[in-house]
Amino acid sequence: MSFRFLSPTKGPGLRVASLGFLTLAVAIAVLQTGRPACAQVAPATDDQIQRAIQKAVGRLRGTLPSLHGGESAVVAMALIKSGLPPETPEIKAAIDLILERTPTEGYVPGAHYVYEAGVSLMVLANADPVKYKRQIETIAQFLISVQRTCGAWYYFSQGDGNAGDTSITQYAVLGLWEASRAGVPVPKKVWDKVAGWHIRTQQTDGAFTYHPLENITGAFGQPGSHTMTVAGTASLLVARMHLYPDARDIEEVKTRRRRRGKKYGLLEPAVPAAENAARDTVQADIGYRPTTRLASIDKAVNSGRDWLAARFTIQPKGNWDLYYLYGLERLMALANLKELGGHDWYAEGAAQLCRVQDPGGAWHDGCGAEPATAL
């Protein structure tokens, strides 16, 4: 079965990858937070949301045994986020597929390379970060080893060191964040290179593109898009968190007050104080001074957010709506924002998801039914 949402495609659209917004992982847990809707949106009720979640869980449990590679991992992640224990037979079988790629030494990349590695880290860290510590370390080291000289990730490790893919990089960043939260050290230099690449390749209007081309003024592989702008801006926020852990949140800087509530939505530390522990154990980080300034990161984040606010939409009219909604949720959770451009992104997204779910419990976009539903 082709893992379509992680396979390269050509054209102005995005190539997807993820655990998307209200595909399960987010549809499942973010929907449960129940935020008020803006006046222009007919909100989904709690009953509608719960029915949608349960229909999707049933769909994914039935199809997971037939999946492999990245598709298997992303569906397993969604089911874990839905509240099913990792010992559930379908989930355990998916975890075993990941473990087969982490023998005693090294990691054996799958067909979907960085995408699959990033999602596999998410699965193991959420299933049991202690039990799977060795495997998490192994996959994290693989991702670090294939980071390109420019700071991004691409389809494979060979080739031009300046070529980067904003979508693939998003998955490496999310996976390494999970590793860090599980207590596995990720050197600051990795995050520094991530931040620098995103700042250098951000378009002048604040948008991000799929395949930016460095060192060519004004030249980009594709025009800026909603999907890549939420991905690039969120990756900057993750890098900021690791490079400047003591810096105030951007929104706190703007409002001069700290908002209350669960931070980062679903992505809370898998192990208490794991991020600080991981940071403190990286010997190479002692005395390390980031080359990417905090002010530069904040300027790029604000620019990306402003681009999205001015063009706010729940349906970008592309092939990757579920991937977009996932990326939007990750960005809003990282930025601690309940509204964007005057819109309650959660209420509008939840209503849209409940409206377009098919009778069998699936959602559909260019990813294919299972990845889109898992997102």
Describe the structure.
The structure is a single chain. With 375 residues, the chain is mainly alpha-helical. Helix content is 50%, strand content 0%. Helix 5 (113-127) runs antiparallel to helix 6 (133-145).
Counting helices, strands and paired strands, the structural category is: mainly alpha
Q: How many β-strands, per DSSP?
A: 0
Question: Which residue ranges are poorly predicted, with pLDDT under 50 across at least 5 consecutive positions?
Answer: 1-39, 256-262, 264-274
Radius of gyration: 19 Å
Termini Cα gap: 18 Å
Total helix count?
Answer: 15
CA-based shape: globular
Largest sheet: none
Question: Any chance you could write out the topology, listing elements then pairs?
Answer:
Elements: H1 24-29, H2 46-63, H3 69-81, H4 89-99, H5 113-127, H6 133-145, H7 166-181, H8 188-201, H9 226-243, H10 250-255, H11 274-281, H12 294-310, H13 321-335, H14 345-356, H15 369-374
Helix pairs in contact: 3-4, 3-5, 5-6, 5-7, 6-7, 7-9, 8-9, 9-12, 9-13
